[in-house]
Structure formats: structure tokens, C-alpha cells
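Reminder: ligand-aware prediction takes two inputs, not one.
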Amino acid sequence: MSLRHLTCTADLSFQEIEYVFSMAEGLKKALAKGKRENFLEGKTLALIFEKSSLRTRVSFEVAMSQLGGNSIYLSRHDMDLGHREAVKDVAHTLSRYVHAVALRTFAQGIVEEMARNSTVPIINALSDAYHPCQALTDLFTIREKLGKLEGLTLSFIGDANNVARSLACLSARFGIYFRIASPAGYQLSPAFVEGLERQGRGVAKAAPDKLIYLTDDPREAARGADVLYTDTWVSMGQEQEAEVRRKVFKDYQINNSLVRLAKEGGLVMHCLPARRGEEITDEVLDGPRSIVFDQTENRLHIQKAILKFLLGSQGGRRQKGGDGSPPEAEKGADTTRRTGKR
Ligand code: CP
Ligand code: NVA
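Here is what comes back for the chain with phosphoric acid mono(formamide)ester:
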């Protein structure tokens, strides 16, 4: 398999995502039993972070360490990406030193430019447009908790931001009904929704035009949902809009009265960091429906599986069943599942 990147979830086929999930499950179980594998021995991951991070940075660094490799963290001040030197020069340079790059930045175009110019995998560790590693973790966590994905209703309350977009993309492909309640002016664009409906075509049982539902009413979105999800009203890079956003989003909070509208036993998720008292209340975040810290933990297991998959795809270390590349039958498979069979 040739060089692969993870700039957004569409870079992985449905079968590859399933493969990443199964590797993550295996790695999670192995870690719990105290088993270690040095699959990434001698490999280095560069982490370029132009925005702050706790979970993404730490989970990637721990993932590399647990798999026998190492990582180098480069903050905005170290790199000054695109200012001190061109993005493509950074990509060419790092390709000569490291085996993969995780990049957290602003414009999605920067992630894509890095990928076009790199000879090692580029992983989007969050851009203004997408957060694919988070959404992969979230679906993995939902299936771990509820035993399935297809046919569930995932209701996102708040800003149609990077996390919401990646969740919407993956939901369409897994036959999850994705509802999003956002105020006017902060909703998903019609072009994006149309793209989702196209991705949802061919998904077993799901009616593509119903896979995504937009509303400005959080109560309507929450009613009967299997999962309620929220994220900050003010993403990194939007700090100047904070005051306006806090007013616009004030009714888009997951609190106990909203949780009561969800399905009995419905779950509450948040990618974190949370602004407690804004998009989610303490009682919900710390309450019995919250699986927020299981989500957080799973970032590590999914990060390990992503690294194993992408670094395994560069060849040279292929071993049947353990090299991080998907089974032969799944290679080059379509991006969307076409039957109900798993
Ligand atoms: N959820 C998430 O990406 O957290 P960090 O910003 O702390 O990495
Ligand atoms: N939407 C948030 C997610 C943080 C993990 C942001 O971009 O700041």
C-alpha cells in the first residue's frame, strides 16, 4: 500500500475505518493486560501544534512511546509554519527526518498542502474545518457503549464546528442519523449537507435524505436521541468573537432538562475541553449519562491504531495480521458500506 494521510475522515474507506477500530480494540485489551508491542520502534512522529492541546498531544506522545517509537513536539513559536518558511519546505524537510507528522493548525488548506508535499503520512490533529481523530474515537466509543452504530441518532447541540463536521461525515457513512441544533448563521452549509447525503447513499437501511437533520431548536434535536454531543461555543481561533458567541449560543446548553428529552439511557459526550456552565452543566458532565472520560481515554487507543495503520502502510514491515495494513480483501474498497453485513 502506498503513502496514506489522514487529512479528514474521507481519506479512509469504510473498511479501513473498521480495521482501525478493530486494531484499537485489540490494543486497548493488550494494554489492559500489560502487554506491549514495539511496532513503531525506531520511528519518530513530529507533532506540529499551532493551537493548544492536552488530549491530542498527550495521547499521540503516549501512543508513540507505548508502541516503541518517539515524538518531537513543535509549538507555533518553534515552527512559525508558513511564515518563517513555506509550508511545502517544512513538509519536504520533515519528510527527511521523521516517519509521520501530526499537525494542528487553522486552515484545512495547510493540512492539505503539507500532505501534497510530504513523503510521510500527515495526520490532521485538528484544523478549523475537521477533527478526524476525535470523530473516529467518538464512533468507536459509541459502539463500545451501545453495541452498534447503524440506526442510532446522534444529536449535536451547538456550533457546527470542526468536531461537528467530522462527526457528521462519519455518521453519514455508518448510517447514524445525525441531528444538529445550531442558531441561524452557525449551521452547516447547504453544500456540506449535500455532500453528506451523497456519502450516505448506499448505506444499508438509511434514507440518505434523512441521515442529516438541521434545526435551530435544541429540544427538537434532543428528543429521543441515543447520544447528545456538544463542544465549546468558541473554538480556538475565534477568541475575538467570544462575547457575541456566548450570547448567540446561550440556549444551546446540554443541561438536565435537555438530557431528560433524550432516549432513556441515552449518553452524553463532549470532546473536551469543556466550558463548564456554558455548553454543558457540571451536573451533566459529571452525571451518570456522561461518557466523556471514556471518550478521552479512547483517544489513546485510536491514536495508536491510526499510527499503526498509517506507518504500516509505508511498507518494509509487513507481517501477516500484525503490520497495520488492512486485510488484502479490503484494500481499495469503496468508501461507503453497501450492505448491512459487517
Ligand atoms: N479533544 C481534543 O482534541 O482535546 P485537546 O484540544 O486537548 O487536544
Ligand atoms: N472545536 C474546538 C475543539 C477542541 C478540541 C476547537 O477547535 O477549539
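The pocket of norvaline (ligand 2) is lined by residues 126, 161-163, 231-232, 235-236, 271 (CB under 6 Å). The chain has two domains: 9-130+298-317, 134-286. We will return to this case in the review session.
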